[in-house]
Specification:
- This protein is of the alpha+beta class.
- The chain folds into two domains: 1-84 and 138-209 and 313-370, FAD/NAD(P)-binding domain; 88-134 and 211-310, D-Amino Acid Oxidase, subunit A, domain 2 (D-Amino Acid Oxidase, Chain A, domain 2, 2-Layer Sandwich), CATH 3.30.9.10.
- It has seven helices and 20 strands.
- The mean pLDDT is 95.
């Protein structure tokens, strides 16, 4: 069988690429060296923040609009929320440039935001600014991935090859994918590569444009009902005086509040060399934040490590593979890509299959690095 599309890497983006292809009525083969959802890459950790107010640049506004519409579709298909549209709060010292940039982007992009003087459950300093983003919220990470993969697997013409590495080459007409464990081959008319933290290994031409960072996630005992979603405690993003960004979520069904750091990751040589241990210094950053901003929160009971694949400017890299219009990739998501997964999966499918995407992704082309 010759598939219309082969997708290599079935994390969030690859999973939604398979979904996009299947929705178009295409035959698609998906490949992953593991069995997603798993904790080897960056698609884990129970929840991800989704935010519409974006300081990173105005070119994210069409992406987030497209992604939120797609998340609503996923919720409808699932029959329950996987994207929880709780709204989200952002706060920072007065006139902080990151928050000001986010506000300006939202206002220029016609996105709703509400300036507020207090944030439920947060001890906001009197000289800090805060805004509420009605479109913000959180996404269930592993649950979403499992649901979308299960739904896609039910589509005719969709095949998944899991638990083995794959290599690929173009023979001038078709892409030939060789399964390492069996040496058997699969052929496809087009190719989408969604490698996550394996990007520098799978796409060597990106090696000079990517670095890997180690970040940590932490879960604390809520200690108070004020951190519950029903009490108005929403996902949040805080910009600190030292440049760090801290984000967090309402207490989950086990009464645990997830809080994580976003900016000051530690560089790693490769995904195989990421230090998966969590140290007192990792926890101290979060414990200090919680003590300052979340009254009566309890101790950290669990921690995890999440690798970020960083581009030089922190923006995504979305483009065709060199020398071919029937192959595309998404890489360098820099720790903020999961919320865009439905949009990015559709875009990489369109680039690979159709040669171009409906949304303008020129700001994310590899050529911007010269």
């Amino acid at each position: 069988m010759i598939y219309d599309l082969a997708v290599v890497g079935l994390g969030a983006i690859g999973t939604f690429a398979v979904r996009a292809a299947a929705t178009k009525g295409l035959t698609v083969a998906g490949f992953d060296a593991h069995h997603p959802p798993h904790a080897h890459g960056s698609t884990h950790g129970s929840t991800r923040l989704i935010r519409a107010i974006y300081s990173e640049g105005p070119y994210y506004v069409p992406l987030i609009r497209s992604a939120i519409a797609a998340w609503d579709e996923v919720n409808a298909e699932a029959g329950r929320p996987l994207y929880h549209a709780t709204g989200a709060h952002y706060f920072a010292p007065r006139s902080h440039p990151d928050l000001e940039a986010a506000i300006a982007t939202a206002e220029d992009g016609g996105l709703e935001l509400v300036r507020v003087s207090d944030v439920p459950g947060i001890a906001l300093p009197a000289d800090w600014d805060a805004v509420f983003d009605p479109l913000g919220g959180f996404i269930e990470v592993e649950s979403t991935l499992a649901f979308v993969q299960d739904e896609s697997s039910r589509q005719s013409g969709v095949a998944a090859f899991l638990g083995e590495e794959v290599s690929y080459a173009f023979d001038g007409e078709l892409w030939e994918l060789t399964r390492k464990n069996t040496a058997s081959k699969v052929r496809a008319k087009s190719l989408a590569v969604c490698p996550g933290p394996w990007a520098a290994q799978m796409l060597p031409f990106l090696k000079d444009h990517l670095r890997l960072e180690r970040h940590t996630l932490h879960w604390s005992e809520s200690g108070t009902s004020a951190t519950g979603e029903s009490q108005g405690f929403t996902p949040f993003l805080s910009h600190l005086e030292n440049g760090e960004w801290i984000y967090g979520f309402p207490a989950d069904e086990n009464g645990l509040v997830k809080i994580a750091e976003h900016k000051f990751g530690k560089s790693c040589k490769s995904i195989s060399e990421v230090d998966r241990d969590v140290y007192p210094s990792d926890r101290k950053v979060i414990a200090d934040f919680a003590e300052r901003f979340i009254p009566n929160i309890g101790a950290i009971t669990r921690s995890s490590v999440c690798p970020y694949t960083m581009s030089p400017d922190g923006d995504f890299i979305i483009d065709h593979l060199p020398g071919g219009s029937n192959a595309a990739f998404v890489a360098g998501l820099s720790g903020h890509g999961y919320k865009f997964a439905p949009a990015l999966g559709r875009i990489v499918t369109e680039l690979a299959v159709d040669g171009s995407a409906d949304l303008d992704v020129s700001a994310f082309r590899l050529g911007r690095f010269g």
